[in-house]
Amino acid sequence: MGRVFDPTKEVQADFALVKDALRNGYQNPFLFIDSSVLREKVRRFKDALPRVRPHFAIKSNPHPEVLTILRDEGAGFEFASPAELRQMLDLGVPARELFYSNPVKAQEAIQAAVAAGVQWYVIDSVEELRKIHQLAPNASYYLRLHTSNEGSTVKLSGKFGAFPEDVTRIITEAVKLGADLAGATFHAGSQCLNPDNWNIGINAALETFAQMRAAGLTPRLLNLGGGFPVEHTEAIPSIWAIAKEIESSLAQVPADIQIIAEPGRFLVSDAGYLVCKVIGITSRQGSRWAYLDCGVFNGLLESITGIEYDFRTDKTGAMTEWTVAGPTCDSMDICTRSQQLPEDLVEGDMVYVRNAGAYSNACAGTFNGFPLPDVLVV
Asked: Helix (H, G, I), strand (E, B), or coil: what is residue 217?
């Protein structure tokens, strides 16, 4: 079916609130989060896909206030590490409602999850199945399938996912071990603009369920993964457009199979503005350069993965092309070489990076001594 777009606009953080947050002055880069948008995004996901419960991908924004709001709105969670598991337990989320979605896990991490009472573990290999089953013989497993990432901004099919020939081996081993292999999952690719990827993944899961049943297993879980997109600088299929495109595929999933998904970016990105400042202006071989106090290493890592952020300022000059770089002394710290910004931009001006609520503070570090962005939830 290819890319499907519609004119439906998603909610976004209130820019007036961002400006209000600056009235008390500016010290360091900070991520502004509009809590009303977080709440609305959960509701929109549920309205568009009423049979699918969203389980937030903690890795996209692990800030405690963000997690608390999503929990209160009825979102579930998927985690990938002992640290994320501890966050969930501290928030009072029952371990049996959590999904351990990292396909490769250290033995110590598995033991911590078992001790906490986690029931569901993803696998994509015979080796991982054997490892977890030895430590948790009563656990339930869902199989991550390799699937199409065509049309996604960041391809995620290169590291994980069982190919068809692997699936048969894994099912055979599960039967041999007496393991509760009872689900399937896939990932359409991060920032996926091609809704058909979900159709392909759902159909692959249905075929896998048929193999499971033929082997005497009882499938009970379908996990649609993540990849649900947000608007940065180009049109996207809305959550309603995606729901419409996958409606017939979901209708083929038996009623006794629980359906979940793992939205991360979709639930938090639109709620955020990353606020930073120009700390230097220069010209190099006729190209304008703007250096910010926030860059690849301390908030804008995704700018080098294919995400094209919408940078905004308070200036009103004619738009022209700039190279935007971060504050570190590393030459890798270049966010974009083709950003449209006002030609009258000067040192000291503020820059607002729209829809930056996902993978900004989560992926930031203190390389070169520059600070992590603060997080302000309003």
From this structure: coil
